[in-house]
Design brief:
The relative contact order is 0.12. The chain is globular, with a radius of gyration of 27 Å. It has a 7-stranded mixed beta sheet. The protein has a 5-stranded mixed beta sheet with strand order 24-23-25-26-27, sandwiched between helices. It contains 14 helices and 27 strands. It is of the alpha+beta class. Bound molecules: glycyl-adenosine-5'-phosphate. Glycyl-adenosine-5'-phosphate (GAP) binds next to β14, β17, β20 and α10.
Amino acid sequence: MSESAASAETTMENLVALSKRRGFIFPSSEIYGGFNGFFDYGPLGSELKKNIRDCWWDDMVRRRDDIVGLESSIIMHPKVWEASGHVDGFTDPLVDCKESKVRYRADQLFFAPVVVEANTVGYVSALESERTTEELQEKAETMKRKKAVQGTLAPVEPKDFTEAREDEYALIPSPATGEPGSLTAPRSFNMMFQTNVGAMTDGSSVAYLRPETAQGMFVDFKNVVDTGRVELPFGIAQIGKSVRNEITPRNFIFRSREFEQMEMEYFIHEDADWEKEHKIWIQWCWDWLKSIGLPESHLSLFDHEKAKLAFYSRGTTDIMFKYPFGVQELWGIAARGNYDLTQHANASGKSHEIFDEATKKKFVPHVIEPAVGVDRIFLAILCAAYAEEEVTDDKGKTETRTVLRLSPRIAPVKVAVLPLLKNKEELTTRAKALYKKLQRRYAVFYDEAGAIGRRYRRQDEIGTPWCVTIDFDTIEKEGDTFTLRERDSMEQKRITEAELLTMLDEHVY
Ligand code: GAP
């Protein structure tokens, strides 16, 4: 992807429209009106998603000697979530609007007193966005004008609803109605989905669907150590679905209720330099994002304030991505100490210590955890890859082409094989032979319908890096060469089958 990608035309509306039009992502249960916070990945989306997973798994697990894989169950013993702290602490602050019945996350609902000449004349509110402060300021100006208050309006000082005083709750307008008096005090809302296991539906059968894959690695730690021939430092990695009853799922697949995580727990010696290990993993994740085509210009780091960290955490750094709706967390890299293993050892009564030959001492390893969502990477990739550009065809006609500048590593289709004409058997036979050969190793697409220019455009829009056209030179001239058309530059050159295979081998790994 080029650095200039994600320009003005990369709006969420464009990305959602393209996703639907070309079969990347559909709203879940769409024929029944959709289901908020759930999405389905269509034919191209499931390919792209699989490529993200496969690249991560290959680089994180298969190509390393110190990391092994795991697939743990989605529903685990309920005691897992008590020991991990999720039953008591996996909550978001919730605010209800009694009038409209809309629910808000208190930390995403912002308000400000409207202050004129040191007097508070009312309150304004707005939901978190790139423009929260501007929106509040505009609303404050409107309020001053409507109330015909004389004097200078002070600049708004936004706070989120968790910071509101009790006496302010009734004064802050609900974003749904624009009127004060209907918002409740914030209360904790546990985001874990509950279910019942077995025939009984009483309290004894309550279980939870996992809100993160990470606990699987801690709970199976002993099993992996006993069977996996692993030695510190080593990691356990997992890819899988997690679910959270998010109060406000939003921004398409950025925050959904069912999503997929790729998490890795890297266990280190209790005396290891955890800050150094933490930095190594931040760099690894950064480089990996680049390797699948995310431009560095869209990435940044955010260090969580030490004072605001969870009590067990020693440090957390997020890799942030510049989405169209703002700079947001893509990948969290946390140094979690030995909190989780110790909790599970205490709760289960099974030791999670490792024997250190050097010091002849037993200890519970510490852990560094890079945790990322596949869907958030998917969205980041679409945002960075999407472009609309003016192009001029052979006849001098100018048109707008939509192109996804996807890295060949993750593009859902690597090569489109196109016979120049549909009704020339010698062309289609040669094209089909090449297609069948490539299909053994790569996701390829055969298309003989329509003008060649239109076929190129279709492939541009789904991010296919190369088109190979079988034309009369292929069959009439010596050398069995094809026209290779490159997506981003749109340049064309002659290439042999052997050269094509070498090129694919180099770029698709
Ligand atoms: N084990 C640590 C953990 O789960 P997290 O920050 O809650 O940490 C890790 O989640 C990553 O999972 C996030 O950085 C994000 O990429 C992804 N993620 C979390 N909640 C999500 C949601 N509701 N929708 C999509 N992705 C989500």
